[in-house]
Amino acid sequence: MDYLLANTPIETLKTECLIVAVFENKQLSPAAQKLDLLTDGLITDTLQRGDIKGKVADTLLINYLPYAAIKRTLLVGFGDADKLTPKDYRKAINAAANTLKSTQISSADCYLTEIKLAKHSITWNARQIIEAFDTSFYQFNDCKSKPADILALKALSLNSLTDTDAIQTGINQGKAIAQGVALAKRVSDLPGNICTPTYLAGQALEIAKQNKNLTAEILEEADMEKLGMGSFLSVSRGSRQPAKLITLEYKGADKNVQPIVFVGKGLTFDAGGISLKPGAGMDEMKYDMCGSAAVLGALQAAAQLELPLNIIGIIPSSENMPDGDANKPGDIVTSMAGLTIEILNTDAEGRLILCDALTYAKKFNPDVVIDMATLTGACLVALGRVPSGLLGNDDALCNDLYSASETALDSVWRLPLWDEYQDQLKSNFADIANIGGRDAGTITAACFLSRFTEDYQWAHLDIAGTAWKTGDAKGATGRPVPLLVQYLLDRSNAA
Ligand code: BES
Ligand code: MN
Ligand code: ZN
């Protein structure tokens, strides 16, 4: 989809469809008022008749106007103008996008940046419009013999007579985020027989090829052997697909500026290993690489926006399969950090590959390290599918991520990482066990990781409940790409 900036007044606009806002209590936005004048009061009449109430996310498509230059109009409700929240704004835009999806309209004009939000700039409005439309129009067709639906809309113009520079900035940011989200969704939605560790490595090389300032390096199992990554390699031993350690490096600042490091779990299929998962819903474990997908999406967005930062993306990628040579419960392995690990459950494999990647991260002298992983089913029990879980060893970093999540509408909620929980990881035979029992599973998983992150400021995002949707709408969400890019934008402004 093309997203364009326009500054055409409604009086001279020619369009297939004009999108304007209306409010509760029959109130019109400035654009709706102008349209009302051009159409002999059609919009006022429509509200009087009660055909649209103007509540948040109400929509009404009027497909004939007594004014030839504007073929149709989509009225979108934004509720009470004085009480409009950022979430409401996004909800209304989502509704507009979803309504247009089932029409034959191929290009539309909107005047939706003009709606004022107390907390946010017009740049934010423009960005949300693009993210919402792009998410709504995302389709996964890679594995279908023909596309599911033909979507007509090809171009959306953001129209405004003022603040055009701010809107253009929002369009650029929105496009970069939307493309990062779309990339993350696509690799995540690909099945495990196509999206293997080797495929992810290929994607990283491809992204590096397409973006200047971005380079990729792939380490093979033999390289990891030399680095002593006994924990990571123990997981891939049960798989015929070779593991890869992928590093993406984005240079946007002076070379001695310490980098922000993202680490993403790239389990391209998690069968559980010898601690085999039950069959029902196991297909969804192709999504166990969503953390790595978000790293790819965020780095691509950073490169497109040419952010003045240095950023490293590290992706440990493997399958977790049952096999004659697979990890067995009770096995003890030695991590790159030197800590020995008793593997009490081979299905707690994410932390086994992440711990070596987190140790590897030290070589980049990181400013901060943020890992993201579909790590625990327990996170779904604790927080459901609304926020991602956030844990970390640094309050300032956690607060920065929380604030970025609010701006990006990509929510997180912090859980405690107190020492008391560390006891659950005691092992009779090794330095540490890889599981901490039934209680507080998300926290004990983070406790495990915390043993490997003591040398730097670190935060962990458990995205088990947020990276994909289950049920009829099964599909990747691209989260937490919006949060990560917002964090990077905030850091860029502070720099
Ligand atoms: N990838 C899973 C976590 C997961 C499960 C994410 C379901 C989303 C939905 C992870 O590797 C795993 O299997 N974790 C175990 C840990 C347990 C054995 C301590 C879990 O959550 O059951
Ligand atoms: Mn598992
Ligand atoms: Zn897993």
Automatic annotation (TrEMBL):
> Which gene does this sequence derive from?
pepA
User: What reaction does this enzyme carry out catalytically?
Assistant: Release of an N-terminal amino acid, preferentially leucine, but not glutamic or aspartic acids; Release of an N-terminal amino acid, Xaa-|-Yaa-, in which Xaa is preferably Leu, but may be other amino acids including Pro although not Arg or Lys, and Yaa may be Pro. Amino acid amides and methyl esters are also readily hydrolyzed, but rates on arylamides are exceedingly low
* Function comment: Presumably involved in the processing and regular turnover of intracellular proteins. Catalyzes the removal of unsubstituted N-terminal amino acids from various peptides.
User: Per the database record, which ranges form the Cytosol aminopeptidase domain?
Assistant: 345-352
The family this protein is said to belong to: Belongs to the peptidase M17 family.
The free-text cofactor remark is: Binds 2 manganese ions per subunit.
Name the keywords, alphabetized. Aminopeptidase, Cytoplasm, Hydrolase, Manganese, Metal-binding, Protease
Source domain of life is Bacteria
Q: Which GO terms describe its cellular component?
A: cytoplasm
**Which GO biological process entries does UniProt record here?**
proteolysis
Annotated source species: Methyloprofundus sedimenti
Name assigned to this protein:
Probable cytosol aminopeptidase
Which residues take part in binding Mn(2+) 1?
D270, D347, E349
